[in-house]
Write a structure and sequence with these properties.
alpha+beta; six-stranded antiparallel sheet; six-stranded mixed sheet; 10 helices
């Protein structure tokens, strides 16, 4: 398909503004279980998301085949004409632009099967019984065409996930996203396998946990889930729609002074991008500085509403059939500034507390207030005098996210590119030491 051609057809059929995001993907997945590779998949696909504005009315569609393209675009425009005007749409990025240059050394396809072997062997070296997971290499040519610009670039990254099980069947899990091959040694397959195996090896003789308020050390996969929710709440659309705990808090202290957060699409990883879905050049955007909320994430339309400039965060962030980010801006990659001491040093400071490896099913009871709960998994460890004493199960974090952010005592010096489907979405986060975290039973 041709993105420019789609724009021309849409304008000819009556659209006022058009943004087309065309992705030509060549993705490879190697899956392994029971300590051996079992399935390999390859997807070579091309699809386009088309955003249309007709007299202030907006809609979007996905196009997978070039056949009947004109007819489908015409249907989309006729559908838009029947809609009410969209008060949240104030236009797309209309300045001539060039893409911000991405600097990374992509990982070779020929190495993928070796990565699977390394992941498995690294996990098994910790004495675990079996290992499963995947190596996923994404390679995309992304083109965005609008009335005003046509930009194109390569985006490529590697996801590595390992889930290790001990003799009791209890798991440990690790998962990372990297794009530059120089990161292979630090956070590639060996790191992922070792960490999953280490967690599983400690997750033994599991006991029923106790309720209460604890000092908690959150692993990057677990803290990354919290930071993923922070990134979502930073979207100007989330704020406007009353679905953010950051409503009316610009310039206010929303977290501990040790927390500084950026959206960083230029760091090599699974969410890097040189331009957004309106062809605005991306940049590193400071959102929280030493605990103070500095900025929301904006598209062109939301920036106009706030009388500011776009942060180039117009991007699809909610999956298929969502409007392009012109309406709902979203984060690319969330980067949290690390601290100065190691994870081991932070754990040594805990007299009585918990180390939580991972979590899932994060759900909000009140999004505006920030009341939520989430279920720890893959290792809940009780700590006394800086040492793991036993493993727990059946626990829940029942908290207010703003309280948690304000109770962060310290960040580790490690900064892990954590990623896990459904929870932690392409973050760069340290281990976080947080005081007074409410732990309840997972009933």
């Amino acid at each position: 398909m041709d993105a420019e051609k789609i724009v021309k057809i849409a304008l000819k059929k009556g659209a006022d503004e058009v943004a087309v995001k065309l992705t030509d993907a060549d993705d490879i997945q190697l899956r392994f279980s029971n300590n051996r590779g079992d399935i390999s998949n390859r997807w070579v696909v091309s699809h386009a998301y088309v955003f249309l504005s007709v007299d202030g009315r907006t809609t979007s569609m996905e196009v997978k085949k070039e056949e009947d393209l004109e007819k489908n675009i015409e249907k989309g425009i006729n559908f838009a004409k029947k809609l009410p005007k969209n008060p949240d749409f104030l236009g797309i990025y209309d300045k001539k632009s060039t893409a911000s240059k991405l600097s990374f050394r992509p990982i070779d396809t020929d190495e993928l099967s070796e990565f699977g072997r390394i992941t498995i062997e690294s996990a098994l070296s910790n004495g675990v019984k079996r290992v499963s997971g995947e190596i996923y290499r994404a390679k995309h040519r992304v083109t965005v065409a609008t009335n005003y610009n046509v930009l194109s670039e390569e985006r490529s990254y590697l996801l590595t996930t390992a889930r290790a099980f001990n003799d009791e069947g209890n798991p440990g899990q690790a998962s990372t996203h990297i794009a530059d091959r120089e990161e292979l040694e630090r956070y590639g397959p060996e790191f992922v396998g070792n960490k999953a195996g280490m967690l599983a090896s400690k997750n033994i003789n599991v006991k029923e946990g106790q309720e209460g308020e604890f000092t908690v050390l959150l692993d990057p996969l677990c803290f990354g889930s919290t930071i993923t929710e922070v990134a979502s709440a930073l979207s100007a659309f989330s704020v406007d729609s009353g679905r953010s705990f950051f409503v009316n808090k610009l310039g206010e202290e929303v977290a501990s002074e040790v927390l500084t957060v950026y959206d960083d699409p230029h760091r090599p990883g699974g969410g890097m991008a040189g331009f957004d879905d309106e062809a605005a050049p991306t940049k590193r955007a400071l959102t929280i500085e030493k605990g103070v909320l500095k900025n929301y994430l904006h598209s062109t339309s939301t920036a106009k509403k706030y009388d500011t400039k776009t942060t180039a965060n117009a991007r699809i962030s909610g999956g298929y059939f969502m409007p392009l980010g012109s309406i709902i801006p979203g984060g690319w990659q969330t980067y949290v500034e690390p601290g100065k001491r190691s994870m081991a040093d932070l754990m040594a400071d805990i007299d009585k507390g918990l180390y939580i490896a991972n979590t899932w099913y994060t759900r909000f009871q009140d999004k505006l207030k920030g009341d939520f709960s989430t279920i720890p998994r893959d290792g809940i460890f009780y700590i006394e005098n800086g040492e793991i004493k036993e493993a727990w199960r059946s626990m829940r974090i029942s908290e207010n996210i703003l309280n948690m952010l304000k109770n962060i005592r310290e960040m580790s010096s490690e900064n892990v590119p954590a990623d896990w489907w459904g929870e932690t979405q392409r973050t760069f986060v340290p281990y976080a030491l947080i005081d007074s975290v409410r732990i309840t039973k997972a009933r």
